[in-house]
Amino acid sequence: MEWGTLGVAAVGALFGIGATLITDALRSRREKDQRWADTKRNAYVRFLTALAQAHSRMTVAAAREEAGPARRQAVHDAFLSDPQHSDAKSVLRELALAAPDHVYLAAVPVYEQLRVARDMLALDAMSFDAPEYQQVIRPFFMDLDALQRLMRDDLKPPADRHV
Fold first, then answer.
1. Percentages (nearest 5) of helix, strand, coil residues in the chain
2. Fewer CB atoms near the end CB (10 Å): N or C, the chain?
3. How many Å is the Cα radius of gyration of the chain?
4. pTM greater than 0.85
5. Residue 105 near residue 47, CB atoms below 8 Å
6. Of 150, 137, 58, 57, whose CA–CA distance to 103 is shortest?
7. Of the candidates 102, 79, 89, 103, which has an alpha carbon nearest to the alpha carbon of residue 46?
8. CB-CB contact of 95 with 104 (8 Å)
9. CA of 17: how far to CAs of 12, 51, 83, 110, in Å?
10. Do 117 and 140 contact (CB within 8 A), yes or no?
11. How far is CA 140 from CA 29, 46, 110, in A?
12. At what angle do helices 88-98 and 3-63 cross, to 10 degrees?
């Protein structure tokens, strides 16, 4: 066997091994990025769902027409008692770990607005069509929609984001 043939075979083998290593590294990176995106997506869905369900449970509790401490307790219990054990506060903490800072910082005021709505619904004289309640709940839903758009944008590939 000639040295030239052996040299070409060795270069070919090195090239093949190098290409395989690069391909494996790129695939590994892509899979890691996908797992991270899935983790964020799950946290985002859980948070948005927790907020919407908490609001629904609170309005049902307030509609029962209880008064005084019983109404306050019912609305507060509805805010906190998520049957799936994923109340908004715990999922907000999950967002603090999984979401980028700009998403987490946008989520905190939405959660706080829901707490203000909770406190208003706990009042005896408060109804769903009261102007005071509408002044709180409209911005909550507008900010919830904005947060959802922000989360959706964060899940897009970097080249498609609207940052």
1. 80, 0, 20
2. N
3. 26
4. no
5. no
6. 150
7. 89
8. yes
9. 9, 51, 53, 52
10. yes
11. 38, 17, 6
12. 160
Residue type, 95: L
CA–CA gap between residue 70 and residue 122 (Å, rounded): 9
Distance CA 135, CA 50 (A): 22
**What amino acid occupies position 88?**
A
CA-wise closest residue to 59 among 44, 45, 69, 71 = 71
Locate 40 and state its tokens: 């964020």
Cα three-residue angle 102-163-94, rounded to 5 degrees: 30
What is the distance between the alpha carbons of residues 69 and 158, in angstroms, rounded to a whole number?
50
